[in-house]
Amino acid sequence: MIPWDKLHGAMTHFPIALLLFSTACDFVSVTFRKLSFARELRIVSFYGLAAAALASLGAVISGIALTKGDLWGRGYFAWHHRFVWPAFGLLMALAVWRLVVRDGMSRAGLCVYLVLMLLASGLIAAAGYFGGEILLSGGSVP
Amino acid sequence: MMIPLEIRGALAAIVTSAFILVATFAASGIYRTQITTQAEAGSKALAGENLAATGRRFFFQSCAHCHGQDADGGEDAPSLLKLQISGAHMALVIQRGIKDEMPSFAKKYDQHDTAALVAYLMTLH
User: Fold this and answer.
1) Could you say which of A64, A96, A106 has the minimum Cβ distance to residue B16?
2) Contact at 8 Å (CB) between B92 and B121?
3) Do B10 and A96 touch, CB atoms closer than 8 A?
4) Contact yes or no for B42/A82 (Cβ under 8 A)
5) CB distance from A71 to chain B under 8 Å?
6) How far B20 CA sits from the closest chain A CA (Å)?
7) Residue A25's Cα: distance from chain center in Å?
8) How far apart are CA B31 and CA B15, in angstroms?
9) B98: helix, coil or strand?
10) Apex CA B96: angle with CA B91 and CA B101, to 5°?
């Protein structure tokens, strides 16, 4: 029997950490444009985002296996899923957009992208928080 | 007319994201149906005796000691009357336990026994 609970717990940390890191790199590179390594930060953020998107697939698959296909649930589960699905969709969309546009984004495009990255980071952090609450509560009502 | 790169990227992003979400939900639905069918087949073996009644017996053997005779919680264990989790998750907690808080009952109760226990816990809602 595959220990999906342990596997999910291990896998979820990658997309969370990578997305937050990618967002941080983007903001630092935009805020401090004159830094000598600002361009390198943008490259790191691109690969970080791509890795986060790929890692999120593993996290989602292990999560579905863990809940036996229950995509919503109740209590903390429902809260976890309320944030997970928008975060997952947004993460995928941002990764694809970045992959297509690369460095060819306009100023307006960059602003929208940064706002959405911030939103995705918030959503994924909230999903992680409620995931932790599920673990700590053993699934009981708050 | 040439469509700007950013717009093309946005369209690709929306389509890909929607496709992945729909595929995830569809695959999950199929998986859930399969699991439910399997669970129903497994529970038929216990259909002769009342599943919840068997679960109740197990509850008093192993759970009531900490969770209380009425399942409303004890000194060190929470109430089981308002559990808001799925049966599958209840079974998982019973089988695996909770680290430093609740022991695993995997060795004591097999899947059918656990299903009976879950059936009883469901009657407490």
Assistant:
1) A96
2) no
3) no
4) no
5) yes
6) 8
7) 14
8) 24
9) strand
10) 110
The pLDDT, as a whole number, for residue A141 is: 43
- Domains identified in chain A and CATH numbers: 4-137 (1.20.120)
CB-CB neighbors (< 8 A) of A75 in chain B: 84-85
Residue A92 contacts B, CB cutoff 8 Å? yes
- Average pLDDT of each block of 10 consecutive residues along chain A (142 residues)? 86 96 94 86 95 96 89 87 96 96 88 96 96 76 42
Q: Name the token pair of A50.
A: 């791509």
Predicted confidence (pLDDT) per residue in B7-54, tens digit: 999 999 999 999 999 999 999 999 989 888 887 776 665 564 578 888
Number of CB atoms found within 10 A of residue B36's CB: 13
Using the Cβ of A110 and the Cβ atoms of chain B, whether some distance falls under 8 Å is answered with no
pTM above 0.90, yes or no: no
ipTM here = 0.87
B51-123 sits in which CATH class? mainly alpha
CB of A58 within 8 Å of a chain B CB? The answer is no
**Residue range B90-120, pLDDT digits in tens:** 888 898 888 888 889 988 898 888 988 998 8
